[in-house]
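Issue: copy button drops trailing tokens. Both records pasted manually instead:
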Amino acid sequence: MNHTNIKRPLWISHRGYKEQAVENTYEAFKAAVDIGFTALETDLRITKDNQIVLLHDRNFKRLSNDNRCVSKFSRSQLEKIRFSGGGQPLFFDQFIKEFSGCTWTFDIKYENGDKTIQTLVSWAKSHGLEQLLTTGARFLTWRASHEKLLKNLLPGAVFYARRIQCWRAGLAVIVGIPSWGAIRPNRTYALPPYLGNISLFRKSFVHCFHRKGARTIAFLPETVHDTRAAIEAGFDEILTNGRIS
């Protein structure tokens, strides 16, 4: 494929390079950095003693066959857990220290999201790192109230469009009436490879967002074909479970 004149997207590693390590562990993020990623995506949840841990699911069933919710654990208890595939839970402060040379995407899960946000901002202020989170991080929230709370506590925070906003914008673009999509400038909207049999990785679709001053992120292309389509379509970012192409 000829990449001449195709803008190179920002590649973001989704929970780290999971082909070599368990997701959201130090080993997974280290593997991602080692193969060239400079942007990392992860998930934030809160423990019962107000510690932020990197975990996608509400519990550890998928990773260690433990059904208990993360919110029922203390940090000291989580530090004793070992995942079935290797590694252990990674905490937010450890992640920031170990991967300070990267940019970050933080997915704030909606369960106890307000508590997660308050703890996050309190930690940043106590360490004098508010600016670091406004310049080096971007946030995804699942509820409008959580975005509003984080905006109030951390002015300047940058957000991805929420899922409902991406659905609305994407459907409006598909039917050819982008004005119905309420696409906002300076927002980044996610598109998956397909909606049913319709390919969404198209230049014309991406152009609709760009004309509104918005950005686009290709959400988890899983095949070489879909990855190439995302590059050719001109996506600004590509969130991937794999390698940089």
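Record 2 (pasted manually too):
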Amino acid sequence: MPSIRRRSYVLVAATLLLLFFASSVAAKNVRKLTLRDLDGNKARISDYQGRVVVLNFWATWCGPCKEEIPRLGQMARQYADQQVVFVLTSIDEQKKWPAVRDYVGRQKITLPVWVGGSTNLVEQLSGINVVPATVVIDEQGEIVRVINGEARDEDVKEAVDWLLTGRKGSAPSERVKRY
């Protein structure tokens, strides 16, 4: 009899873990996330409440990140007249922030750039420690999509367009893996 009870507990625990991990992406609210802009000022997701936020994690040493940033800038221009903001968040260590600033200047990046991100934060928000990583956040600060690896335009646009149309149609998948 004890083995049946033990199996029942294991089954219940496994079911709860499955439910937790299956909903872990969408259940995360990042409204309180605070980092720094390149001038050292506090930068908060809550500053963009009421807007869709495409939050991209990158690093100066990451080749795919450097390929992805211009595409994100182009998408930002396409959504410029809508309630969408694209934010680049560097995971470079603090001692490398001057290199981040230099890179942004050389590349003439006009998107907001934040510093203070980390591999731990990327893993916390996206579920895996891989950059680039992109998180699409709804107007209330809830994560609706995570893109691990170099995002394709359609990966971002599918989630953003779904949010902009009032969530009409099928919801986009919560996770896209591109690595």
